[in-house]
């Protein structure tokens, strides 16, 4: 058993007969009243987000997890196929176990989190950033760069990302997978 002081991003806990992963947390100590921990939890069975507040010092049931590296092979509808990079065993996971499936490119190496009790895959952690090529975007309008103006662009996986006006089709960009946002242009 752990307490609320052990809460961190990525921690898997059992709560309300379901397994959740902590996405965000904030320890709050108001001037008046007891301290508490505000969390954003993601259900690993349904993929839904839940905002929850725990009183400080409350016991929580954490789940022992193990991580393994897997390479993404291909999607098949809402099913995603992965291969273990060490022993080449293949597994299939549902779309709800991935945080940002629209940014997953074939051949990308991800971290799969397994429950150590029953060896069931719980979730897939994407790398912090991915490099993808722009397949479609409108040309930027000259003279419209006084502000941080952005335009929509489609990347090779089909995801829509807002990018600065100077980005053109064929450019490779680095994307933050946690926010699905543009970070920088990548030069070869």
TrEMBL record:
InterPro entries attached to this UniProt entry: Elong-fact-P_C, NA-bd_OB-fold, Rib_uL2_dom2, Transl_elong_fac_P/YeiP, Transl_elong_KOW-like, Transl_elong_P/YeiP_cen, Transl_elong_P/YeiP_CS, Transl_elongation_fac_P
GO biological process: peptide biosynthetic process
SMART domains assigned to the protein according to its UniProt record, in alphabetical order: EFP, Elong-fact-P_C
Single Gene Ontology MF annotation: translation elongation factor activity
HAMAP family: EF_P (MF_00141)
Functional description taken from the UniProt entry: Involved in peptide bond synthesis. Stimulates efficient translation and peptide-bond synthesis on native or reconstituted 70S ribosomes in vitro. Probably functions indirectly by altering the affinity of the ribosome for aminoacyl-tRNA, thus increasing their reactivity as acceptors for peptidyl transferase.
Name of the featured protein: Elongation factor P
Native species: Gramella jeungdoensis
Gene assigned in the entry: efp
């Amino acid at each position: 058993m752990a307490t609320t002081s052990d809460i961190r991003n990525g921690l898997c806990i059992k709560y309300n007969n379901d397994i959740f992963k902590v996405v965000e947390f904030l320890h709050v100590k108001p001037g008046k009243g007891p301290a508490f921990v505000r969390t954003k939890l993601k259900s690993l069975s349904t993929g839904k987000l839940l905002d929850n507040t725990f009183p400080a010092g409350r016991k929580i049931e954490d789940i022992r997890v193990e991580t393994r590296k897997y390479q993404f092979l291909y999607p098949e509808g809402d099913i995603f196929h992965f291969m273990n990079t060490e022993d080449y065993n293949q597994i299939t996971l549902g779309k709800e176990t991935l945080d940002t499936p629209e940014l997953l490119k074939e051949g990308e190496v991800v971290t799969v989190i397994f429950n150590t009790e029953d060896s069931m895959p719980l979730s897939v952690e994407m790398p912090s950033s991915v490099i993808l090529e722009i397949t479609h975007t409108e040309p930027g309008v000259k003279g419209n760069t006084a502000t941080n103006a952005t335009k929509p662009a489609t990347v090779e996986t089909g995801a829509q990302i807002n990018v600065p006006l100077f980005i053109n089709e064929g450019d490779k960009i680095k994307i933050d997978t946690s926010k699905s946002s543009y970070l920088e242009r990548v030069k070869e």
